[in-house]
Design a protein that fits this description.
about 375 residues, alpha/beta, Rossmann fold, Glutathione S-transferase Yfyf (Class Pi), Chain A, domain 2, six-stranded antiparallel β-sheet, six-stranded mixed β-sheet, 10 helices, about 25% strand
């Protein structure tokens, strides 16, 4: 998979731009605040449908403008196709493939895939479980587009149950009113947890060799999916019963506090280095090596499952790495299409195409 061309209009500080990409390494070079990350953000939007910097898409429009557009040409197997995203303050967000509007996010996800690595990911180990769940969910959505629908359904059901719980804090609500929501929640939870656990098993195969390469075989990385309820050896029917039992056991506490305390919204990706939890024991260097390993493995999984390499976005990351880690990453991505950003052109002597960025203007 390859990004051939992109156009932006009224996107953040970019009034208008048109960029042709090399099929190999591309560098966006410029001082901070000039628009490098804005362009990388636009590319990521075409893969995931959302920004990695803000949950509010209206933040992406140029100040004073009511409409922004991202238009890209993507090639891979078969004929090249066009993706277009329109962000309109009045009409909302719309996505098109070859001029035809897509009605569902699941129709869009997977058409173009990207692996993002930015400085914020370097804290993936030390951050709370929510960050690691987001990492898993974002990667799975690009490979299993219907996964986004499952996540959305789960959020809606949890919101309905939470509303009933809060109502029950004020007046009596029969237990039977909760059961239809809980049964639906358990069914969708089994599907989500199973897909997450399957993805973690793939990560467990591919990330450790990268970690060993980065650390020169001095340490070993291991991963496991942590859950209050999910167990690997359970059948779907057994898992569904286990989730129902967990909700039953915690019901009084849930009603007391007004939210669901057990379930997939608490699950985590546990990362261990030499069998010790990385979150509590890993040095900064070990954390960076572990995150690099996860990101390289994410790209490998994407390529293995689709037979096409994703585009790699490395936003201001190389400057954060020492020489050995930087060399490992660039060698590992040899032959892939990579878009890198940074402030020092000397960091990108190996790239095929360098684009200079100043005030939202892009030039060779």
């Amino acid at each position: 998979m390859q990004l051939d061309h992109i156009e932006l209009r009224s996107f953040r500080n970019i009034g208008s731009c048109s960029v042709e990409w090399s099929p190999k390494n591309n560098a966006l070079v410029g001082e901070n605040g000039q628009g490098k990350t804005n362009l990388a953000e636009a590319v990521y939007l075409l893969a995931c449908g959302k920004s990695f910097r803000t949950p509010h898409w209206r933040d992406l429009l140029t100040h004073g403008c009511d409409r922004a557009e991202i238009i890209a040409t993507v090639s891979g197997e078969g004929l090249p196709f066009q993706l277009k995203m329109v962000l309109d303050r009045r009409e909302g967000k719309a996505i098109y493939k070859n001029g035809c509007r897509l009605q569902k996010l699941s129709e869009f996800l997977g058409l173009f895939r990207a692996v993002l690595f930015c400085p914020e990911h370097l804290s993936l180990i030390k951050d709370g479980p929510g960050k690691r769940r987001s990492f898993l969910d974002g990667a799975i959505c690009q490979l299993r587009p219907y996964f986004a629908s499952l996540l959305n359904e789960c959020r809606q059901i949890e919101a309905q149950r939470a509303a009933l719980l809060k109502l029950s804090m004020k007046r009596a609500v029969p237990r039977e009113q909760f059961l239809p929501w809980e049964e639906r929640l358990c069914r969708v939870s089994v599907k989500i947890a199973s897909l997450r656990a399957d993805y973690v098993r793939l990560l467990s195969e591919l990330a450790p060799p990268h970690y060993e390469g980065i650390s020169s075989l001095r340490e070993r990385l291991s991963l496991r999916y942590e859950s209050d309820v999910y167990r690997e050896n359970m059948s779907p029917e057994e898992m569904e019963k286990a989730y129902l039992l967990a909700l039953e056991e915690s019901f009084e506490a849930d009603r007391k506090y007004g939210f669901t305390q057990k379930g997939i919204h608490r699950d985590d990706l546990e990362i261990l280095i030499d069998s010790f939890p990385a979150r509590g024991f890993a040095s900064q260097g070990q954390q960076r090596s572990a995150v690099l390993s996860l990101k390289l493995a994410e790209g490998e999984i994407s390529e293995k499952m689709t037979r096409r390499s994703p585009v790699y976005l490395l936003d201001d990351v190389l400057s954060e790495l020492d020489e050995s880690r930087r060399r490992y990453v660039t060698q590992g991505l040899s032959g892939k299409q990579v878009i890198l950003t940074g402030t020092d052109k000397e960091d990108f002597s190996f790239v095929q195409k360098t684009i200079y960025v100043k005030g939202g203007v892009f030039s060779l």
